[in-house]
């Protein structure tokens, strides 16, 4: 079977991290979780700073410094970022090299507090709950991210969506998509996890074999399902999903 798209593994360089972040900015322009981060920031300059590639560039550079795998498809029509087991883009030792101070400077103290402490805390709690569920389902012997590949980001430019590019970008650690697999470091016996932040991506991941671990809503009471400010809103949804370890690993 021949892969219909060209998937490339990228080197973990600052230049590639910047190019990946530029794609993600456009792909996540109206994402509910990103909206939920931005909405509380009233300073228009700080809002623009967060919306543009400064924030994503920091995240992807931090991931690169923690040994992520970067991929692009069909000459930069889409990108994906995968975190290996036992790694964390939030590693405090790599925050400064990843230019976190530039993020702080652009957002300002109030912007950091509004965008990071509220929604960010809820996202971290959601991630912990997801991993607890995954450990139970996969039979993991230790807690945390042991043995689990995590899809940090996958994004396709709006004008190239609905062309099967996401399937290619998800393939390095999704065993059912073997024609694209480029990562010799991945064993399909290991669990794979991610978080979906809109119904469309959730449906796609389910088609690729991911099972739903649970749903959590962030900013309940202050934002609607699109992550926009709304008093009494239902909150922006986030779904934890995973492909658990194969049965032979559950001992």
From TrEMBL:
Domain of life: Eukaryota
Signal peptide: none
PANTHER family: GNAT FAMILY ACETYLTRANSFERASE, N-ACETYLTRANSFERASE DOMAIN-CONTAINING PROTEIN
Residue segments, region Disordered: 176-198
Protein name: Uncharacterized protein
Lineage summary: Eukaryota, Fungi, Dikarya, Basidiomycota, Pucciniomycotina
InterPro entries in the record: Acyl_CoA_acyltransferase, Trichothecene_AcTrans
Coiled-coil spans in chain: none
